[in-house]
Write a structure and sequence with these properties.
Helix content is 32%, strand content 22%. With 768 residues, it is of the alpha+beta class. The chain folds into 5 domains: 116 residues, Pleckstrin-homology domain (PH domain)/Phosphotyrosine-binding domain (PTB) (PH-domain like), CATH 2.30.29; 72 residues, Orthogonal Bundle (Recoverin, domain 1); 73 residues, EF-hand (Recoverin, domain 1, Orthogonal Bundle); 267 residues, Alpha-Beta Barrel (TIM Barrel); 129 residues, C2 domain (Immunoglobulin-like, Sandwich). Helix 22 links the parallel strand 19 and strand 20. Helix 6 crosses helix 7 and helix 10 packs across helix 12. GO terms for molecular function: calcium ion binding; phosphatidylinositol-4,5-bisphosphate phospholipase C activity.
């Protein structure tokens, strides 16, 4: 089939050459380097590969899977093979989510450039697609998959196979009727536009048609007033409904005459419901909408544990890729475990294990490059230093020289602060968290003394030209790395002063008790807790933990027993106001869904303001025993229908999913619960449930909702199809689509579920 994107796709010489195909070396490891023939398909949207030109080809990736393309010298693997394979002929394809990078080496620099430039053009094109273009692309991908003999048309037999792949169980006679109706050329096959008509017939949304007709007097259109009624009554848009109705008609009504007359057709109504405006996630929570001028300890901070690992904790690979992925997904606190390395260069790895090692300077350079690509707000380098005094000096040099102006090495105004600075004040800054020899007060006093000494020296220089000439001939004495050389002669502390001096607002201290912290610690001192210790403190002294986190930062990390890099539920730590709840971000699953759900809001900037009752030192809130429901709410969710649900295992051509929807609520312990619908047999394409679930929530400000679609399986705990997690405070009421994500957090477009959300103040059954 001629791609549905044809005519809109960019056309240039690079893409034409990519469609002819090229032989390149695929590199998986130092020992696995094999020649493969790569070719961009005629649809311009998928790349296939074969062992040689003319060989049996199979899909490698879709352009929509690609995040970016990097040059060869940016690849750790290709750099390690630089003597064997020319770096300038190499490039790396980076995919969304946790899929491994694809390293390729072309036969010449020119061929590498053709693929790098061509792929980037296509990636930029896909990124800029609108809703209709994304749907066309999805259909195009399916057509490619279903058109087995690649002749650009589909027979009824191919269509039947495709229906099974698309999760549609349909009476053969009815399917043939739809096929014939779409085959306007009467060729016995479906081509491009005919296939689109066939798809439209398959996806007719009767439940949306009924809703449309409930508000439309003539069943053909919604007038401006009818649409305003719908937005007020059902979508709870309130006073802004009139202005919003005009905006939405202008945005989603496909016909110009409809726009002029301010009316919305059924197609426009469906477009609105499927859009960001019709999404369950409130679009006003997507950009930065919170106050970013409060002290750091008033925010939840997106944090990563053992960031250098891309696998397990015992034998996994250490890689700068771990830092790139963490920072690009919005992490603002990354961890670095540093040990003595060969040739005086510190190395990063999980000590006393078989995990691989990377130079500390490479980690610092990677942080410098990627720290602020996703968010401008401060990055915290959590250092776990196991180095000798000499290699700590080298660390201090690398941090100072590589990070330069990005590194915060003294208080913002040179004065002693009374509270932690805000994310806003620290924009574009990298902060070091680690052990410190002295207090901040002593550091600032010494800085004052040094400034006085310097000005005295300047006065002496002016009076004695010979002294000035002597100092100019010894410039190394003034470098930041040489300060310790003088002190070294006196005594050698375990911690190197030049590294200690780089720790300003985040001094690591041991935790003894909340009373001890109150009496002996300062606001810029921070303690770390294992998940086990933090949980027991919440049970024993939940309110004290809340108060502690209102003035000091806490970091929680996964138990050392999690050698498989599994995760714990971050919610119970957030309930106590813990800010840096560090996760193994390389491991997908329920816990990371919750984590990503919270940090999806506020511009995904990595900082989310804690609820006000977790920000007061005198707070009476206890996460285990919350006070009687002062803001309790009841939530009614009608789960209506599903659309284009994928199979988890595409190899099972004949099997069709039996979907059910589970709604899980995470919050304080009494609010944490789940309910599910019954399952719909053999229909992943357009299942209908029409079931209502009811929840009572005591502390909505802390609650997150996770919608999970499962494939019913009586033998197991059901198979995962897709999920979406949203903070209660970011949820829109009314008729909403929930656009599903994969286990990896990647869009499963156009897979969605259609729901109706209603929130009522108080608890159902309350006399008040």
């Amino acid at each position: 089939m001629v791609s549905l994107m044809q005519g809109r796709l960019p056309i240039n010489q690079d893409l034409l050459l990519m469609q002819k195909g090229m032989l390149m070396r695929k590199v998986r490891s130092k020992s696995w380097k094999k020649l493969r023939y790569f070719r961009l398909q005629d649809d311009g949207m998928t790349v296939w590969h074969a062992r040689q030109a003319g060989g049996t080809a199979k899909p490698t990736f879709s352009i929509s899977d690609v995040e970016t393309v990097r040059e060869g010298h940016e690849s750790e693997l290709l750099r390690s093979l630089a003597e064997e394979l020319p770096l300038e002929q190499g490039f790396t394809i980076v995919f969304h989510g946790r899929r491994s990078n694809l390293d390729l080496v072309a036969n010449s620099v020119e061929e590498a450039k053709i693929w790098m430039q061509g792929l980037q053009v296509l990636v930029d094109f896909v990124t800029g697609m609108d809703q209709q273009e994304r749907l066309d692309q999805w259909l195009s991908d399916w057509f490619q998959r279903g058109d087995r003999n690649q002749d650009g048309r589909m027979s009824f037999h191919e269509v039947q196979r495709l229906l099974h792949l698309m999760n549609v169980e349909m009476d053969q006679e009815y399917a043939f009727q739809l096929f014939q109706a779409a085959d306007t050329s009467e060729s016995g096959t479906l081509e491009g536009k005919e296939f689109v008509e066939f798809y439209k017939a398959l996806t007719k949304r009767t439940e949306v048609q009924e809703l449309f007709e409930n508000f439309s007097a003539d069943g053909q259109k919604l007038t401006l007033l009818e649409f305003v009624d719908f937005l007020q009554e059902e979508q709870k848009e309130g006073e802004r409904a009139s202005d919003l109705a005009l905006e939405l008609i202008d945005r989603y009504e496909p016909s110009d005459s409809g726009k002029l007359r301010h009316v919305l057709s059924m197609d426009g109504f469906l477009s609105y419901l499927c859009s960001k405006d019709g999404d369950i996630f409130n679009p006003t929570c997507l950009p930065i909408y919170q106050d970013m001028t409060q002290p750091l300890n008033h925010y939840y901070i997106n944090s990563s544990h053992n960031t250098y690992l891309v696998g397990d904790q015992l034998c996994g690979q250490s890689s700068v890729e771990g830092y790139i992925r963490a920072l690009k997904r919005g992490c603002r606190c990354v961890e670095v475990d540093i040990w003595d390395g060969p040739s005086g260069e510190p190395i990063v790895y999980h000590g006393h294990t078989l995990t691989s090692r990377i130079p500390f300077k490479d980690v610092v350079a990677t942080v410098a490059q990627y720290a602020f690509q996703t968010s401008d707000y401060p990055v915290i380098l959590s250092l776990e230093t196991h180095c000798s005094w000499e290699q700590q000096q080298v660390m201090a040099c690398h941090l100072t020289e590589i990070l330069g102006e990005q590194l915060l090495s003294t208080t913002l105004d040179g004065l002693l602060p009374t509270q932690l600075p805000s994310p806003e004040e620290l924009r574009g800054k990298i902060l070091v968290k680690g052990k410190k020899l002295r207090t901040l007060e002593e550091d600032l006093e010494e800085e004052e003394e040094e400034e006085e000494l310097e000005s005295e020296l300047e006065r002496e220089q002016e009076a004695d030209p010979e002294l000035e000439a002597q100092l100019e001939s010894e410039p190394q004495a003034l470098s930041p790395c040489s300060k310790d050389k003088k002190k070294e002669k006196r005594s050698k502390p375990i911690l190197c002063p030049s590294l200690s001096a780089l720790v300003v607002y985040l001094k690591s201290v041991s935790f003894h008790s909340f009373t001890h912290s109150r009496e002996h610690y300062r606001f810029y001192e921070t303690s770390s807790f294992s998940e086990t210790k933090a949980r027991s403190l919440i049970k024993e002294a939940g309110n004290e933990f809340v108060q502690h986190n209102a003035w000091q930062l806490s970091r929680v990390y996964p138990s050392g027993l999690r050698t498989d890099s599994s995760n714990y539920n971050p919610q119970e730590l957030w309930n106590a106001g813990c800010q840096m709840v560090a996760m193994n971000v390389q491991t997908a699953g329920l816990e990371m869904d919750i984590y990503d759900g919270l940090f999806r809001q506020n511009g995904a900037c990595g900082y989310v303001l804690k609820p006000d009752f977790l920000r007061h030192v005198q707070s009476s809130f206890h996460p285990e025993r919350p006070i009687s429901p002062f803001k309790a709410q009841t939530l009614l969710i009608q789960v209506i229908s599903g659309q284009q649900l994928p199979k988890e295992d595409m190899s099972k051509e004949r099997s069709i999913v039996d979907p059910l929807v589970r709604v899980e609520i995470f919050g304080i312990r009494p609010d944490t619960t789940r309910q599910e619908t019954s399952y719909v047999e053999n229909n992943g394409f357009n299942p209908y449930w029409g079931q209502t679930l009811s929840f009572r929530v005591l502390v909505p400000e802390l609650a997150l909702l996770r919608f999970v679609v499962k494939d019913y399986n009586w033998k197991s705990r059901h198979d995962f199809i897709g999920q979406y997690t949203v903070p209660w405070t970011c949820m829109q009421q009314g008729y909403r689509h929930i656009h599903l994500l994969s286990k990896d957090g990647i869009s499963l477009h156009p897979a969605s579920i259609f729901v109706h959300i209603s929130i009522r103040e108080g608890l159902e059954g309350d006399e008040s």
